[in-house]
Amino acid sequence: MGRTVILVDDGLAIGTTLRAAIRALRGREPARIVAAVPVAAPETCAAISEEADEAVCAARSRDFHAVGFWYENFSQTSDEEVRALLEAARSDAFDASDSPTRRARQAVNAVARGPSRIRTWARPVMSRLL
């Protein structure tokens, strides 16, 4: 039996990239696929929950507009930043008893606090949900 895979994205507007990743992973026969994002359009979150075994969309807004709208700085994340975030995640040992949903929420929280930072006005919403 495969492992649980947690896919994290910075947000979902139409979800094309995340949908493609889920479909590609299905062929590798994971035990479960959990999709996790800090922000999403409600209809896209619903569509992703049909494709993944579980979807964690921390904040949903009917006035979504675009992923970048939710971030103070939506510039590209460098390879160095990605490596540093992955290393930091490795050093934050997960409790083996943590559910995939809990791990997904932790990953979404890391994205929201990361280099791009979720917009100041969106942080209270995120903190209540995470």
Describe this structure in words.
It is a single chain. Strands 1-2-3 form a three-stranded parallel sheet, with helices on both faces. The longest helix has 14 residues, at 100-113. 42% of the residues lie in helices and 16% in strands. It has one domain: 3-Layer(aba) Sandwich (Rossmann fold), CATH 3.40.50.2020. It has 130 residues and is an alpha/beta fold. It contains five helices and three strands; from the N terminus they run βαβαβααα.
Topology:
Elements: E1 4-8, H1 16-26, E2 32-40, H2 42-51, E3 54-60, H3 79-91, H4 100-113, H5 123-129
Parallel strand pairs: 1-2, 2-3
Top CATH class: Alpha Beta
**Approximate helicity band:** 40-55%
**What number of domains?**
1
> Structural class, from secondary structure content?
alpha/beta
Mean pLDDT: 76
Largest sheet: 3 strands, parallel
Query: What is the CATH architecture assignment?
Result: 3-Layer(aba) Sandwich
Strand content: 15-25%
Q: What is the count of helical runs? A: 5
CATH topology: Rossmann fold
The stretches of 5 or more residues where confidence is low (pLDDT under 50) are: 120-130
Radius of gyration: 14 Å
Q: Total strand count, please?
A: 3
Strand order of the largest sheet: 1-2-3
Q: Rough shape?
A: globular
N-to-C order of helices and strands: EHEHEHHH
Distance linking N and C termini: 30 Å
